Amino acid sequence: MKLLEDRILKDGNILGDNILKVDSFLTHQVDFKLMTEIGKVFAKTFESLGITKVVTIEASGIAPALYVAQELDVPMIFAKKHKNITMTEGILTAEVYSFTKQVTSTVSIASKFLSQNDKVLIIDDFLANGQAAKGLIDIINQAGASVEGVGIVIEKSFQDGRSLLENSGVKVTSLARIKNFENGSLNFLEADA
Ligand code: 5GP
Asked: For residues 73 and 62, is the Cβ–Cβ distance under 8 A?
């Protein structure tokens, strides 16, 4: 997605060997015009699959996921990272190792929001080693629902996430695919959409 790649080049900051900071338009401050376009591109990619729910993980997956859900006209559910006393009924959980925070946390979704009739699209802001998406797939499988695809805003293709997900039979669509960070500059592979 050219608009997204241009924005990453303009406003993204490379931290260390393998982290991209995009807090001015995606992970902290959010550009709703860019999110609107992202929502449209993902919705077009997945519109023929009969998606009934969009699922993401808090916090920074929520913005893109909500715009995709709006375009597909289905609910968006975000997995919670912290147990909440209001979550009293059945919850589905998975352990997820966070690449950026370097801690494992239990993420959860209330079972009442997913059923075996659901066809789910997973959306997330980044794909690194695939642990967040793998945890969401685990939860969706526990509900007996089907995972129809994974949509990623920014994939770091030099990490293992994509192959992990594809080897488990899930189709991945990424709007920007970063090949590497070399001498402080950023190189892209051809994106999926
Ligand atoms: P994974 O689970 O695929 O290893 O990592 C994906 C999750 O880690 C995303 O939900 C995202 O929040 C975070 N993440 C991974 N890499 C980056 C990065 O380079 N920059 C930012 N801002 N977040 C990242």
From this structure: no
**Whole-model pTM above 0.90?**
yes
Amino acid present at 91: I
Tokens 């709703």 correspond to what residue? 32
At 12-27, the pLDDT tens digits run: 999 988 999 999 999 9
pLDDT band at 87 (very low <50, low <70, confident <90, very high): low
* pLDDT for the residue numbered 99: 86
CA distance 27 to 99: 15
Task: Name the residue ranges covered by the structural domains of the chain.
Answer: 2-189
- Among 144, 149, 146, smallest CA distance to 123 is for 149
Hey, which of 99, 139, 155 would you mutate to test ligand 1's pocket, going by the most ligand atoms within 8 Å of its Cβ? Answer: 99
Greater confidence (100 vs 92) lies with 92
Distance of CA 193 from the midpoint of ligand 1 (Å): 20
CA of 78 to the centre of ligand 1 (A): 16
Cα–Cα separations (whole angstroms), residue 84 to 75, 115, 132: 21, 22, 20
- Other CB atoms within 10 A of residue 160 CB: 15
CATH of domain 2-189: 3.40.50.2020
The answer to whether the annotation marks 187 as part of a ligand binding site is no
Q: pLDDT tens-digit profile of 119-155?
A: 999 999 999 999 999 999 999 999 999 999 999 999 9
